[in-house]
Design the sequence.
């Protein structure tokens, strides 16, 4: 893929005003995250943070405005949408438009690659025909992911530790996710104690994670407290999540893997 790498971030949610005052939008968080990850890459020829170009698209509040696919190299679908507001399974018009847009990018061309995180994985899963449902409870804070064989190959290790904050999850994969590409396989990257589909992957097309590699400890603590105040999470669940929020995560390693996925010829 030629440089600069043009990444269009599809924001599906606006964080609270307090969160935004400290960290910006979820798109801003991801821009810093991937910029920091780029510094760790060792490639030939060298890849630099300056080789990344970002644009942000608020597809929830401005559903009539999407990037021109000819002018981007990758889509990054981000957001939570698991506490108040619509779920990825809803028929809200902007969600249907987002699912349709992602489906067309995945089905109708082979150049632009797609990354999804948290709500983004659910949207990608829905676009590909995955079954999505609500879990009995929350999966929160620093969590260990047991990687599948393909996940081990992609991430170069047996396990990943990353932040989580979700109640919805991909339940099953479709038999034939890419009807026009019979050799394209949608694979599961790993699982956890609470969630059987922790990631989705198709070579040179899509990579997604249910967790939140871009979220740091202080951010997670704030998000947990917000959900507690909103009545979406019990005190016991919030306390347990807060106690684990300072544990080590593999965020930057995951960010570098995302970039290698985009750079893979």
Sequence:
């Amino acid at each position: 893929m030629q440089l600069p790498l043009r990444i269009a971030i599809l924001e599906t949610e606006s964080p609270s005003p307090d969160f935004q005052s400290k960290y910006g939008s979820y798109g801003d968080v991801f821009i810093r995250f991937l910029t920091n990850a780029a510094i760790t890459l060792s490639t030939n020829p060298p890849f630099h943070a300056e080789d990344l170009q970002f644009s942000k698209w608020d597809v929830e509040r401005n559903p009539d405005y999407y990037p021109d696919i000819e002018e981007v190299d990758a889509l990054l679908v981000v957001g939570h949408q698991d506490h108040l507001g619509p779920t990825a399974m809803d028929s809200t018009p902007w969600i249907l438009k987002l699912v349709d847009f992602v489906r067309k990018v995945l089905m109708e061309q082979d150049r632009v690659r797609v990354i999804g995180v948290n709500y983004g994985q659910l949207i990608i899963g829905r676009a590909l025909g995955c079954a999505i449902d609500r879990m009995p409870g929350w999966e929160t804070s620093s969590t260990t992911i047991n990687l599948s064989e393909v996940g081990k190959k992609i991430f170069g290790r047996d396990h990943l530790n990353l932040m989580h904050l979700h109640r919805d999850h991909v339940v099953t994969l479709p038999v034939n996710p890419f009807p026009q590409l019979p050799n394209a396989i949608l694979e599961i990257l790993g699982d956890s104690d609470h969630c059987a589909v922790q990631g989705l992957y198709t070579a040179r097309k899509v990579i997604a994670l249910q967790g939140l590699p871009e979220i740091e400890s202080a951010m997670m603590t704030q998000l947990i407290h917000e959900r507690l105040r909103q009545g979406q999470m019990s005190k016991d669940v919030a306390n347990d999540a807060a106690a684990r929020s300072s544990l080590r995560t593999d965020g930057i390693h995951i960010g570098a893997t995302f970039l290698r996925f985009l750079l893979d010829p």
